[in-house]
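Suppose a colleague, Dr. K., hands you the sequence of a protein chain of 207 amino acids and asks what its three-dimensional shape might be. Before reaching for any lab equipment, you can write down a predicted structure in token form. Begin with the sequence itself:
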Amino acid sequence: MTLPILYSLQNCPYAMRARLALYKSGQEVAIREVKLDNKPASLLDASAKGTVPVLVLPTLAVIDESLDVMLWALGQSDPDNLMLDSNDAKKQQMLSLIKRFDTEFKPRLEQYKCAKRYQEDNLAQCRHACESYLLELEQRLSQHAFVFSHQESLVDIAILPFVRQFSRVERQWYRQQPYPNLKQWLNNYLQSRMFSKAMTKHPVWCD
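The predicted structure, expressed as tokens, is then:
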């Protein structure tokens, strides 16, 4: 059987969430770990964007947006019901929440990471810009065990890699903050078999 091919990068949050969904769906893929400073020609042939993740199906159809990879995987199989038996309204609510974190939180997170890396004097300001999103998650997680509802959903694994990134920018500061529910939610994932499997290190693939 020919497997779908996933071009991936271990610590890219977008590739990470694609791998999480593929793991959750039980969908086998052939992972090709790439280096973005030396992109293989086959990756560029599949997607001119040259970013990961890129999923090439046996039909040669290409999916090169991480959320689309997640939706494709869960469309094949969703044994944990991460789509929550979605009607269109519920699905749109989940996608809307994910989109807000993708388009609002992630750019602020990148500014925060840059401020820390380059020791800029606006570090606290950049961190504060991210915190309203953490407060929202904390409030949601005070009501139920997962972000969107009492049951794990697409939302959890879609935003997990970004929250993980935030927690690693200023680790000491993060550990001292009063986000008990968010910390527990994140730690449960980071210590899970799913996360360990999704973060398996693969040798760099070459054409």
